[in-house]
Amino acid sequence: MNVREVFTESIESLNRNRVRSVLTMLGIMWGLVTVVLLISYGRGVGNAVLEGFMGIGNNVVMMWGGQTSMQAGGERSGQKIKFIEGDAEAVRDALPFLSAVSRETDDGFSVKYGPKTVNISAKAIDLPYGRMRRLDVEDGRYFEAADFSEHRQVVIFGPHAAEKLFNGYPPVGEVVQIEGQPFTVIGVLRNKIQDSSNNGPDSENIFVPFDTMRTLRNQVAPDMIVFQPSSPELHLRAIQAVRTVLAQRHHFDPRDDKAVSTWDTIEDGKSMVQFSIALQVLLGIIGAMTLAVGGVGVMNIMLVSVTERTREIGLMKALGARRRDIMLHFLLESLVLTLIAGVVGMIVAYFAGYLIPPMPLYSAMYKTANHDGDIILRASTGTMIVSFVILSLVGIVSGLLPAMRAARMDPVVALRHE
Prior knowledge:
Strand content: 15-25%
Largest sheet: 6 strands, mixed, barrel
Structural class: alpha+beta
Number of strands: 10
Shape: elongated
Radius of gyration: 33 Å
Number of domains: 3
Strand order of the largest sheet: 2-3-8-5-7-6
Oligomer: single chain
């Protein structure tokens, strides 16, 4: 008997016992819907959390001075490392596999507009900083090269900082007083989801050209060096190379991890991806347990089917059917029953993902549009493939015991069965 005949006979068997078959298939269908939606939920949570983390930037590494823990270059351990003017330029010139390098200094300024004065966190940065840190401008413009070369007194506001000072009034083109110095507002950043930050979220900061900071604090050395390797795979090499350059300039051992501190967002991003995968696996296992309950129903109906068709099995054996033929017959019948219910479940789960509205996670906190950062149930191709594999395993396991029982029947005893 070929696969087509087995499939046809399986359909006829389902028709003969419609109520029993439908109830069994409902268990499989519900289990499959549970698997797909739970895995999709885990994927949605992982994507939202990763999006929140990646608000800090694209493949960014930040490095700042620490305290030596090893002796080197005649210097004792315990020496504080503070970056000096020229460090960022030395790093940029020595390491061509860095796609971008920027200085950064964090401070807090008194900012005045009209009669209103507020204290706002500020960052002094270089031109490449915006691309690395995802500073997308919604109104106005970002810095240009002339702003740095001509030491222009211009400022970009984060959206929350702008709201804090201007109370909804359009700030672009307005002149504010920062520590008594006039600065022209050239842009306002687009609001973004940012679950990790240094010196507060970008939305609550203002940004000025690095060298313009001298007019405010007379500071020429950066607090931090921010860089981006040309490829994420080079991040460990890039970190060690930057550490080596700085070690030569500040006379510490490049193996000393305490001399300069590092925030490697690339490595942290990998951890976020691993968390997402682990969550999907966990929820997939929980869903598979629900599907296994449906599999028990399939096993039960197949055992009943074997009992009802005992004489038929005996006749098949009397006509020369081998054990493996009978076993394959009932195994395929179980698989057909499971797959029909599973396909219907997949279709239901797919459309349910579109009917279930996005579940708020970050949108309420960051007031984002288009449900950015929310948990969205969308069954991906990978989710469907994994679900199909689990479904097939359940079908095979559910049909294994009934198939073995049918294959082991004595033909004489089976033919005498009433």
